[in-house]
Fold Germin-like protein.
Amino acid sequence: MLQVPTSTISLVRIDYAPYGLNPPHTHPRATEVLVVVEGILFVGFVTSNPADPNVKNKLFTKSLYPGDVFVFPEGLIHFQFNVGKTNAVAFAGLSSQNPGVITIANAVFWIRPAN
């Protein structure tokens, strides 16, 4: 990840193997903008605690092709999956120099008991 000094953004290149997955995760301190430059990605995010209870925990998904852009709002659980038989490449810009990352499966299943 490239962190730009005296700035409030980060940039990362993500390389996906065929059928590769960036598993469900969240960035507690940043919105993410993803740009696909190669391959096809199936992406999505889940809403949480919206003002309208009818859209609570709703899954939004989209298939992205080269040149497509998708925004993952700050703090929402999201994922990317390479649906192609070839490699995929994307760049993500994050609205913080320290966006943080919480991988959901790790947070739930790798819990250590308190001493």
Observations:
- The mean pLDDT is 90.
- The helical segments are 104-109.
